[in-house]
Write a structure and sequence with these properties.
The chain has about 300 residues and is an alpha+beta fold. The chain has helices spanning about 1-35, 45-50, 65-70, 80-85, 90-100, 130-145, 165-190, 210-220, 245-255, 265-280, 290-300, and strands at about 100-105, 110-115, 120-125, 225-230. Among the domains are: about 45-165, no CATH class; about 245-300, no CATH class. Strands 1-2-3-4 form a four-stranded mixed beta sheet. Strand 2 (about 110-115) and strand 3 form a beta hairpin. Helix 2 (about 45-50) packs across helix 6. The protein is flat and about 110 Å long.
């Protein structure tokens, strides 16, 4: 009887041990699969971005589009503003958008992104190579935070059918203007050829489904433009000093009495001279400070 009990206990412990080993192996394999395909931190950004496209209100200030595009100036919707890149207005807009920076942490490393108005692209810094889908998610967060939804021009994302991006429409209008210019140029040069002279291929009859699919494919496809500017250590969080300020500081240093050869002996002489000639018992009179102190005060400002 005791041998039977011992045999059953041994068999049960053996099978229990094997079951624990197999369970641990399955758990490790699941964890390794999850590590190979980690969940995105930004996976909710697509849903949040799509929520910005809701029913519009009649009032402009209360509308959804106005709320999520509040930081885009109305002048940027005019193609003439983008044509005059050297204008002061465009330079002011470009500088403003270069300071609106997003520092985003992802599973593949950190990304620094801002909008380059001159190239109409999302400029970014990253230590690793980032695919387009991840950059799109970061761009969705950028336009949502900085209220510039129209800068996101990708029309392959699930968006409402009645929505047209104004910047994409601006590009299409520019293409139409170029076509009109070419046609006018041909008319002026008497190059307007009659197309009826040439032989045409016989068109095949298309069904209704084929025409619908063709209309969908005829729509131009727009993608966001991303520009890689280097690794994170190439990005400077400190704003650089302008060349005008540097030139003004150089002119002031030239006019100052203190030069690079201003030694300690000259400094002591100025102090002794100020004590001998500059001091006065009257409280109303002001003592003249040495040029060293003046230079020191300028550096502190």
């Amino acid at each position: 009887m005791t041998s039977l009990i011992a045999c059953t206990l041994f068999c049960s412990s053996f099978f229990l041990h094997q079951g624990i080993i197999s369970y641990n192996k399955l758990r490790e394999s699941k964890n390794s699969k999850n590590q190979k395909n980690p969940k995105h931190i930004l996976e909710n950004e697509k849903e949040l971005f799509q929520k910005t496209f809701c029913t519009e209100n009649t009032d402009k200030e209360d509308s959804i589009s106005y709320k999520y595009n509040a930081n885009i100036d109305n002048n940027l919707y005019d193609y003439k503003t983008h044509e005059n890149h050297s204008s002061e207005l465009f330079g002011r807009f470009e500088k403003k958008w270069s300071t609106r920076i997003l520092f985003q942490n992802t599973n593949y490393g950190n990304i620094i992104m801002y909008y380059d108005l001159f190239r109409q692209a999302f400029a970014y810094y990253s230590d690793v190579q980032v695919n387009y889908s991840l950059l799109n998610l970061v761009a969705m967060k950028y336009v949502r935070i900085y209220s510039c939804r129209d800068f996101f021009v990708d029309n392959q994302v699930d968006l409402p059918d009645d929505y047209t991006n104004p910047f994409n429409q601006m590009k299409e209008d520019e293409i139409e203007r170029e076509k009109k210019k070419k046609q006018e140029k041909r008319v002026k040069m008497n190059l307007n050829l009659d197309s009826s002279v040439f032989v045409k291929k016989k068109q095949k009859q298309q069904t209704q489904t084929q025409t619908q699919t063709q209309e969908k494919t005829d729509k131009p496809i727009y993608k966001n433009n991303f520009r890689f500017l280097g690794k994170l250590n190439n990005f400077s969080f400190i704003q650089p000093i302008s060349i005008k300020k540097l030139k003004a500081a150089a002119m002031e240093s030239k006019l100052s009495s203190i030069t690079d050869h201003y030694d300690y002996v000259t400094f002591k002489d100025t102090i002794t001279n100020s004590h001998l000639h500059g001091t006065n018992t009257n409280s109303d009179s002001k003592t003249e400070y040495s040029p060293f102190y003046k230079k020191f005060e300028e550096l502190l400002i």
